[in-house]
Design goal:
The chain contains 10 helices and 6 strands, in the order βαααααβαβαβαβαβα. The protein has helices spanning about 20-30, 40-50, 55-65, 70-90, 100-105, 120-130, 155-160, 175-185, 200-205, 215-229; strands at about 5-10, 110-115, 140, 170-175, 190, 210. The two termini are about 15 Å apart.
Amino acid sequence: RNLQFDGVIFDMDGVIIDSERVSLKCWEMAAEPYGISKDEIWAVKLEITGATALFVRQLIMERFRHIAGFDYDTYRAAYDAYFRGFMERGEIPLKQGVKELLGWLRLHGKKTGLATSTYAEKAMHELHMAGIDGLFDAVVTGDTVKNSKPDPEIYLKCLKKLDLPAERALGVEDSYNGIRSLSAAGMHPIMVPDILPVTDEMRGKAELILPDLNEVCRYLEKQMSVAVS
């Protein structure tokens, strides 16, 4: 079918920036002193991917409070330090096809937004380090919303900033919570899987599942040519 749209809103981690595997590694490294297993960290990672810092704090405190000496702030500080190290060494690359897709959208007069659960300072630093901080018409970060994905608040706020109706906007996500958020916002969800496998729920909620952003670009080009013809 012909997908009519005026703009695209992206998640950041795992969609724009190839950070989720590094993030998982950093959670594992920070967990080592507490004797928390990689399997336990992976189980938590499945739930916190795409969530705000407040949700992450609540979930991790609840999950690991039984561990003697566990302190969330110490754990989080270790994670942040490891992650910052990877970032400063330039070891967190852009996902394949990011600049090409953003360039194509700009060329065709489509609005671009970013809706990330990451807090503003960290998000803007990541975008700056990646050299793409000027490529979005609107950015909404996790510290500016009350409700974490899967609540649609962050996408509704970004739509408002872009002056876009939901039915004319595509959303690109890699996480379950992100796709749920897009669906609840009434947008057209596109899933580009990263570390989380595609589930039946995601096949139901996402209008498209594509392997990478190059394929997203090719799909949108095809849609444009159909609309013109």
